């Protein structure tokens, strides 16, 4: 699968302002993030869907700054959403928080308890399967890599089956599972290139769904360019002595 170019974006090394409208006048919202992080991209999509104005603060994960350590002293990881001085950590928790605070526009979770539970199940599946298996694809070789590729495709096929013929996982509108999954799409090219396989050949409906979702501005402006992500992964591999 060739990388699909996304709209180019410029980010400051320190911070840049994303101009959306906020629900509450005077809100101070900062996103501590790393540009290539699929977890951070989840938060960016959710904020864009809600139309929330926020400040973006790029973090150096190899030289963590005082603000990140102060706002997430437990895990010391991005993303962190700082809302009026109060930090919210872990991407899926942040997305749920955004959905609850800015609930007037573009609900991401259903009002039905069962549907909410199902959405959380599949988002958790994405967290536990795609990230770890994708990481194994670009950090291992030989039999270990082949096993990771097989498990990765099998996981995508399960997601493809859950999607079915629906436009989005939750039905007719972009929702929680979509926000959880879509950021990994811009990492697919890196997985494929390093692992020498083709995701679209095995999961054509899922790739068609991802491309369709890119037609939404909230998605296309929040995902990074696949080629840049690939270059980032190559840098990681060199950093850890894998190339």
Automatic annotation (TrEMBL):
Record function comment: Is involved in the conjugation of reduced glutathione to a wide number of exogenous and endogenous hydrophobic electrophiles.
Record domain GST C-terminal: where: 112-232
One of the record's GO molecular function terms: glutathione transferase activity
PANTHER family in the record: GLUTATHIONE S-TRANSFERASE U19, GLUTATHIONE S-TRANSFERASE, GST, SUPERFAMILY, GST DOMAIN CONTAINING
Stated name of the protein: Glutathione S-transferase
EC nos: 2.5.1.18
Keyword Cytoplasm applies: yes
Keyword set, alphabetical order: Cytoplasm, Transferase
InterPro entries per record: Glutathione-S-Trfase_C-like, Glutathione_S-Trfase, Glutathione_S-Trfase_N, GST_C_Tau, Omega/Tau-like
Highest taxon in the source lineage: Eukaryota
Subcellular location: Cytoplasm, Cytosol
GO annotation terms (biological process): glutathione metabolic process
Reactions that this protein is recorded to catalyse: RX + glutathione = an S-substituted glutathione + a halide anion + H(+)
Occurrences of domain GST N-terminal (ranges): 27-106
Example of a GO cellular component annotation carried by this entry: cytosol
Sequence similarity: Belongs to the GST superfamily.
Organism of this sequence: Populus tomentosa
Enzyme class: transferase
């Amino acid at each position: 699968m060739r990388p699909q170019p996304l709209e180019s974006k410029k980010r400051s090394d320190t911070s840049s302002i994303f101009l959306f409208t906020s629900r509450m006048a005077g809100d101070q919202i900062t996103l501590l993030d790393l540009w290539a992080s699929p977890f951070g991209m989840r938060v960016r999509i959710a904020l864009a869907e809600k139309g929330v104005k926020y400040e973006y603060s790029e973090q150096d994960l190899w030289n963590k700054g005082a603000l990140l350590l102060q706002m997430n002293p437990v895990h010391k990881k991005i993303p962190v959403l700082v809302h009026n001085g109060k930090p919210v950590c872990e991407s899926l928790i942040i997305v749920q928080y955004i959905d609850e605070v800015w609930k007037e526009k573009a609900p991401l979770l259903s009002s039905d308890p069962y549907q909410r539970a199902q959405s959380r199940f599949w988002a958790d599946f994405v967290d536990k399967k795609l990230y770890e298996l994708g990481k194994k694809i670009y950090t291992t070789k030989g039999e270990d890599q082949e096993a990771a590729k097989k498990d990765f495709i099998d996981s995508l096929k399960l997601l493809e089956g859950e999607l079915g013929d629906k436009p989005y996982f939750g039905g007719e509108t972009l929702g929680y599972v979509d926000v959880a999954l879509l950021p990994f799409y811009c990492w697919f090219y890196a997985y494929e290139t390093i692992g020498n396989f083709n995701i679209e050949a095995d999961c054509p409906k899922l790739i068609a769904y991802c491309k369709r979702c890119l037609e939404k501005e909230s998605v296309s402006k929040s995902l990074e360019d696949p080629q840049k992500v690939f270059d980032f992964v190559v840098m990681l591999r060199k950093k850890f002595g894998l190339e």
